[in-house]
């Protein structure tokens, strides 16, 4: 059976690949949206944090024999702790001035991290094995679905929806939103706003690291993996609406599927389709699809 002249198995396989890519877009753009929406920081170091998360998984296995499931716990904690140090020592000084300084600082930190890892590991790439429990594939009749890719989609959706629920539907989330809008008033009620801000940045960094661990068995781990992806992720955030949690999730998944379909029908445009959509959205709705107009 064919769809638009393309064998169904190839068509659905490309859709699956697009959904997997969209899952990574959603998780990375979610972390960016959390940090920007609650702290007002354009965190250009997000791609480097994603890369560091993948390397933490690789080094945990190579040096300490700790497998994939441990890495899912260790990498977000390690990168989150790194985020705490950056927030306390550097970013905290920039909250009350123009956001461009935060962007420049995080961009510089990303270049430093990438340079350090390139010096240590080169650019050839490291392999990370698929966990034994998730090896193999399931035959669905119309296509063969790799078990690990199905797990990536499920895990990404679960993390994204859980993050959205915490921020939008819990008391902690209301404290976070109120603390960033009127910190003096919230602090007057006994809430430790600086601690909330620090933990929010750490959580955003941890989300990037978690995406890096999930990506490790799918792609080669290289110091350039973050810089290759971060521009697309920023486009996803702009299309969804800067600071919109739900917008980042839905836009990331949707653009992954669009990119996958573009590779089927017009492969030459697959590298630019996201940016074309971004340009159209910015012309028609500058705040993004789910963003609030100023």
- What sequence of helices (H) and strands (E) makes up the elements? EEHHHHEEHHHHHHH
Tell me the major beta sheet: 2 strands, antiparallel
Q: Percent helix among the residues? A: over 70%
Mean pLDDT: 88
Number of strands: 4
The proportion of strand residues reads under 5%
User: Tell me, what's the shape?
Assistant: globular
Explain what you see.
The protein has helices at residues 8-39, 46-64, 68-89, 99-121, 147-169, 171-181, 183-188, 193-215, 225-240, 245-265, 273-284; strands at residues 2-3, 6-7, 137-139, 144-146. With 294 residues, the protein is mostly helical. The chain has a domain at 23-222. The strands form 2 sheets. It has a two-stranded antiparallel sheet. Strands 3-4 form a two-stranded antiparallel ribbon. A hairpin with a 2-residue loop joins β1 and β2 (6-7). α5 (147-169) crosses α6 (171-181). The protein is globular.
Features:
globular; single chain; 11 helices; 294 residues; two-stranded antiparallel ribbon; 3% strand; mainly alpha
In brief:
It contains eleven helices and four strands. By secondary structure, the protein is mainly alpha-helical. Helix 1 runs parallel beside helix 5, helix 5 crosses helix 6 and helix 6 crosses helix 8.
Detail the topology: elements first, then pairings.
Elements (H helix, E strand, L loop, with lengths): L1 E2 L2 E2 H32 L6 H19 L3 H22 L9 H23 L15 E3 L4 E3 H23 L1 H11 L1 H6 L4 H23 L9 H16 L4 H21 L7 H12 L10
Antiparallel strand pairs: 1-2, 3-4
Helix pairs in contact: 1-5, 1-8, 1-9, 1-10, 2-3, 2-4, 2-8, 2-9, 3-8, 5-6, 6-8, 9-10, 9-11
């Amino acid at each position: 059976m064919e769809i638009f002249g393309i064998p169904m198995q190839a068509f659905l396989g490309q859709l699956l690949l697009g959904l997997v890519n969209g899952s990574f877009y959603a998780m990375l753009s979610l972390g960016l949206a959390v940090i920007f929406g609650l702290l007002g920081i354009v965190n250009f170091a997000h791609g480097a944090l994603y890369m560091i998360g993948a390397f933490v998984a690789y080094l945990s296995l190579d040096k300490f024999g700790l497998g994939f499931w441990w890495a899912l716990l260790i990498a977000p904690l390690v990168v989150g702790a790194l985020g705490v140090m950056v927030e306390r020592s550097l970013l905290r000084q920039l909250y009350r001035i123009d956001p461009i300084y935060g962007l420049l600082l995080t961009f510089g930190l990303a270049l430093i991290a990438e340079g350090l890892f390139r010096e240590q590991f080169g650019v050839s790439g490291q392999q990370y094995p698929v966990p034994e429990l998730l090896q193999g594939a399931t035959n669905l009749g119309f296509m063969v679905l790799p078990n690990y890719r199905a797990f990536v989609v499920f895990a990404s959706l679960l993390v994204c929806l859980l993050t959205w629920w915490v921020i939008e539907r819990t008391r902690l989330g209301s404290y976070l939103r109120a603390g960033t809008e009127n910190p003096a008033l919230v602090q007057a009620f006994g809430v430790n706003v600086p601690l909330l801000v620090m933990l929010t940045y750490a959580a955003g960094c941890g989300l990037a690291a978690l995406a890096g661990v999930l990506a490790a068995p799918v792609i080669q781990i290289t110091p350039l993996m973050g810089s290759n992806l971060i521009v697309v992720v920023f486009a996803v955030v702009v299309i969804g609406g800067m600071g919109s949690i739900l917008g980042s999730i839905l836009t990331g998944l949707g653009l992954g599927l669009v990119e996958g379909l573009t590779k089927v029908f017009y492969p030459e445009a697959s590298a630019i389709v996201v940016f074309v959509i971004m340009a159209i959205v910015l012309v028609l709705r500058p705040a993004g699809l789910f963003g609030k107009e100023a």
